[in-house]
Amino acid sequence: MELGTRPPLDPAAGVEHPWLVPAHFRVPDTDDQRPPRGGGPVRRSGRDRAVDLTAVLSSLLGGLLLLGASQEVAQPPSEALVVLDLTAGVVGCLALWGRRRWPVGVAVALLVLSSFSNAVGVAALFALFTVAVHRRWPTVLAVSAVSAVSGSLFVVFRPDPDVSGLWMSLLAAVLTAGVVAWGMFVRARRQLVLSLVDRARRAERERDLRVEQARHTERTRIAREMHDVLAHRISLLGMHAGALEYRPDAPPEEVARAAGVIRASARQAMDDLREVIGVLRDDTDGTPAGRPQPTLADVPTLVEESRQAGMRVELTIDVPRDVAAPEVIGRTAYRVVQEALTNVRKHAGGTVAAVHLSGRPGPGLTVDVVNPPVVGAHAFGALPSAGTGLVGVGERVGLAGGTVEHGWTAEGRFRLRVWLPWAA
């Protein structure tokens, strides 16, 4: 799982992962973790324990104040009822310590006790608030109904001569509605915070995925460049080395010239390989500086290099000189010609390769490379081939939005034809 091993968020299920909620979004009077329905253990932080202790002490103090106020009426309750009320209040307040683990059970029990006990009234409101925060609205509605029934029974069991039963029932209903509304507001706010945190984390994961995909794409492009460049250089090395092997009695000047070309090609191949390996080892987000990429204007230089290596190449270019081809089109055309000449050296050495480039903005650019089949065996032995040259050409041209055609013509020549789009 990305970004650590924490489980995914489920905002609709309530607050399940407190470590994802910023501290300034937390509500002091409620838990930051949804209580488990099975009554399992609940992890409590120091803040949670402080909140629970505050709730218990506040409920005890409020219950004692309500119990004391009940002694000031014209007809105070009996001593036995006072002792029962006080006992129920103490037990109910201490039960708040388990409201996180059993919110519904604690709330129902305290609401039942509040039907005759003044001292448990504040604790029952705390428990009702906990249910509103941590449970869905059907459960909250059911517990609220229990609260309404409990308030009605309190009016029956503990009537106040100075206040009518209607007003007491209305006050109980208002308190219940206010506590439930506050709890559901806190729940909705927490769900909103969690959804925003989840959205931010998803956006971060998507960003990391896009970065990784960009790196993979770049490394794939570098691998193609490595294949094209090194195959070209190594084929030149093979051709010159084969010439020296075929003509050991060549004049010293020709041998020296061929050896110089071999040394220069080997050095260029090593430079290309060093640059590619350096890029592959770079894991930073920055783009390493490299040599300028070839363009359509570099094709004549490529052909001349092949001619100096002993190949016979006929080059025809029918492209407007005053219009520069787009970078992608020019680089793709260059690599296509490079791969085509490499294949000719590998599979049809000694033949004449005809390279024809034509096109302009609008109709597009066409690269046509034709060569006849080799007659007899290669003079210097066939060079090894990975068999992926034309596959790489197809992938490269496909990325540029072009098309590739290759195969034997009716005249018995092998033809590689590539069309590349060139916007007007």
Automatic annotation (TrEMBL):
Matching Gene3D superfamilies: 1.20.5.1930, Histidine kinase-like ATPase, C-terminal domain
Source superkingdom: Bacteria
Boundaries of every Signal transduction histidine kinase subgroup 3 dimerisation and phosphoacceptor domain copy: 218-283
Annotated Gene Ontology cellular component terms: membrane
Keywords tagged on the record: ATP-binding, Kinase, Membrane, Nucleotide-binding, Phosphoprotein, Transferase, Transmembrane, Transmembrane helix, Two-component regulatory system
Enzyme nomenclature, EC number: 2.7.13.3
Pfam family for this entry, one: HisKA_3
Group of enzyme by EC: transferase
Stored PANTHER family: NITRATE/NITRITE SENSOR PROTEIN NARX-RELATED, NITRATE_NITRITE SENSOR PROTEIN NARQ
Region (Disordered): 26-46
Name of this protein: histidine kinase
